[in-house]
Design a protein that fits this description.
By secondary structure, this protein is an alpha+beta fold. It is built from five helices and 17 strands. It has two domains: 168 residues, Gyrase A, domain 2; 76 residues, Beta Barrel (Elongation Factor Tu (Ef-tu), domain 3). The strands form three sheets. The chain has a six-stranded mixed sheet with strand order 8-9-10-7-1-11, sandwiched between helices. A hairpin with a 2-residue loop joins β4 and β5. The longest helix has 15 residues. The N and C termini lie far apart (42 Å). This is Transcriptional regulator. InterPro entries: GcvT/YgfZ_C (IPR029043), YgfZ/GCV_T_CS (IPR017703), YgfZ/GcvT (IPR045179), YgfZ_barrel (IPR048451). It holds the Pfam family YgfZ_barrel.
């Protein structure tokens, strides 16, 4: 059996190139663009002037261009806004709706890298290789963007369904927004600061005032949580309820979810009040028989 499985990803890309690409994006995104290079990717948010997110992206550099990788809804919204203000800068902005993009799950990271002829240095998480570029998410997960003329190496098991890779992203606490939640949350509500997606030392960018207020004045009252429960069938919902004694009350919003039919498990990311107790009893509003519990985040929400 192959130690590496590849999952075709339903995600889009935005490429930004041109003479002013760094300065332009630096004034648009929550991340410090000076930290991004071909060996280092970081998370970044793109906000409205009111500080609400159009998207949360993996931001990387490849072949002298900056790329933003996110959900279709995030990329479509963000590309529209970037193009709107990009007319005042020397930049070219392009939305890529069908990139050759794969998520990899591996139980032998070194062997997987050898298959692709990828070589990460110890402190870096991005690597260009002959077939494209690879992003290291952790020791079991990678994302590869293949060049148009490149294919997956022999010996890789290609899966038809990306459920398991999406589930792994949820359990890693990695946010993704659907069309229902574009311009709904400030970055801290989906834990962007906790995964290194906000620079509080850089200069001005769109929405900075709101983001800074959330940090320094303690205005943010919500956070993103992992919730999970046993399930006999696939369910989808947008709202969670919390049990308070004998009653149920609205708790928060589900921003992404997945059902793993192999383990009969429902997993989701939900934005809840940030004082929600870890042992709270929760259920889906439209499927009240589906109970879920809060799982431990793999990172701290405390300000660094």
């Amino acid at each position: 059996m192959s130690h590496t499985r590849a999952f075709p990803l339903n995600q889009h890309l935005i490429s930004v190139s041109g003479q002013d690409q760094l300065n332009y994006l630096h004034g648009q995104l929550t991340q410090d663009l000076n930290l991004i290079n071909e060996q280092q990717f970081l998370w970044a948010g793109h906000c409205s002037p009111k500080g609400k997110l159009w998207g949360a992206f993996k931001l990387f550099k490849h072949q002298s261009k900056f790329y933003l990788l996110g959900s279709p809804a995030e990329c479509e919204a963000s590309a529209k806004e970037l193009k709107k203000y990009g007319v005042f800068a020397k930049v070219e902005i392009e939305l890529h709706e069908s990139p050759k993009l794969f998520g990899l799950l591996t139980n032998d990271f070194a062997a997987t890298c050898a298959q692709f002829e990828i070589s990460f240095s110890d402190e870096h998480n991005s690597c260009e290789f002959a077939g494209g570029i690879a992003l290291k998410l952790d020791e079991t997960r990678l994302i590869v963007l293949l060049n148009d003329d490149a294919e997956l190496p022999n010996g890789i098991t290609l899966e038809k369904d990306a459920t398991e890779f999406e589930e792994a992203a949820i359990l890693a606490g990695e946010p993704a927004l659907s069309s229902d939640y574009i311009e709904e949350f400030v970055p801290q509500m989906i834990n962007l600061q906790a995964i290194g997606g906000i620079s509080f030392k850089k200069g001005c960018y769109t929405g900075q005032e709101t983001v800074a207020r959330m940090r320094y004045l303690g205005k943010n009252k919500r956070a993103m949580y992992i919730v999970q429960g046993d399930a006999s069938q696939a369910v989808e919902d947008s709202d969670l309820e919390i049990q308070l004694e004998d009653n149920w009350r609205r708790a928060g919003k589900i921003i992404c979810q997945v059902f793993n039919r192999n383990s009969n498990t429902y997993s989701a990311l939900a934005v809840l009040p940030n004082d929600t107790q870890s042992d709270a009893t929760l259920r889906l509003k439209q499927s009240p028989e589906q109970l879920v519990s809060i799982q431990l985040l793999p990172y701290s929400l405390e300000d660094q």
